Amino acid sequence: MSKLTEQLVVETVDLTKNYDKTTVVDKLNLRIEEGDIFGFLGPNGAGKTTTILMLLGLTEPTSGTAHIYGYNSTREPLKVKRITGYVPEKVGFYEDLTASYNLAYTARLNGLPEDLVTKRVNESLGTVGLSHVAEQQVGEFSRGMKQRLAIADILIKMPKVAILDEPTSGIDPEGIVQMLDLIADIAKEIKMTVIMCSHQLYQVQRICNRVGILVNGKLVVEGLLDQLGREALGGGRLRIEVKLTEITSKLIDCIKRISGIVSVERSGDLLLITCLEDLRPKIAKAIIDANGLLVEMKIQRYALEDIYRKYFREA
Ligand SMILES: Nc1ncnc2c1ncn2[C@@H]1O[C@H](COP(=O)(O)OP(=O)(O)OP(=O)(O)O)[C@@H](O)[C@H]1O
Ligand SMILES: [Mg+2]
Questions:
Q1: Which residues of the chain have pLDDT under 70?
Q2: Residue 300 pLDDT
């Protein structure tokens, strides 16, 4: 499918929010496509949550518009809510009711047939690792348990769009990886589009294909993670770090002759090779041919941290 025919899931046009006289979201133009897993990044107070609240129709923009699947968030908030799942910064459930009951409530609210409710609730609780506390009151849950329950709630609803505001805060490290993979799997399976706010860059890098960085209410950069990453490294290049028992000038010459190599620099017992593509197999062969002894070879792709620092500093 061409880019042009792909459905825009989220579109904001000059979306702006002022609190008193302070502009906290400033003429935001955001476009998110179906199936994107969008990492919404930015420092504390940048305006991420405020943007999300406007997308969901939970707070009114001062000016500009937000649409989700063509529905105007301000004028058609119920339609937006029907197709959107939301995990807020502070998740809210009926605290004096059980986990099962809370999820069953969501299921019924979303029109799930009665004979499927219990099955779906049990499955979802199992998937997020809460089966053993299914009949416990949510008020007795820890923060991380509530966060897991919020993700189970998304599993019940299977929305077209999931908006997750710091979905993994309070979840233990092992659980985080599980949760993220789970979110990414569902997204793929049902073509769910995901918008995820997070300060955990490695988490974002793990599952997002697209990121936007908001600073002082303005989007300072937005795009495909891969592309931004290559730009941050400079000129679409990769860096390969090679450790050898001995570095000779003959060996450096051999590597330089490989087509696609941009530069070879020596740094102690390391060779830092910049190249246009992943040339590790050819580099390894050149080293062996030159009778070199290879100790280690590492490829340095960009890290989302590089991108974040670059654009954050420039903002
Ligand atoms: N209801 C409100 N009334 C007044 N100011 C508000 C209100 N909600 C948010 N703000 C202000 O708007 C700005 C943006 O806040 P927002 O919660 O959107 O940031 P954020 O990017 O989500 O930050 P964080 O990463 O800390 O969650 C902040 O300066 C905040 O103080
Ligand atoms: Mg926030």
A1: 1-6, 233-236, 301-302
A2: 74
CA of 176 to the centre of ligand 2 (A): 19
Q: Is 213 in the pocket of ligand 1 (CB under 6 A)?
A: no
Spatial separation of the C-alpha atoms in residues 213 and 261, rounded to whole Å: 32
Residue-range definition of the domain harbouring residue 242: 236-301
Query: Residue 292: which CATH number?
Result: 3.30.70.100
Identify whether residues 257 and 224 lie together within a single domain.
Answer: no
- Closest ligand to the CA of 214: 1
- pTM, 2 dp: 0.81
Same domain as 251, residue 108: no
DSSP one-letter code for 137:
B
- For the record, the structure tokens of 73 come out as 């968030």
CA of 312 relative to ligand 1 center, distance in Å: 18
Helix (H) or strand (E) holding 143: helix 143-157
Residues 63 and 196 in one domain: yes
Q: How far is the CA of 144 from the centre of ligand 2 (A)?
A: 17
User: Ligand 1, closest atom to CA 166?
Assistant: 27
Q: Is the CB of 50 under 6 A from ligand 1?
A: yes
Tell which residue, 8, 27, 7, 5, has the closest CA to residue 16.
Answer: 27
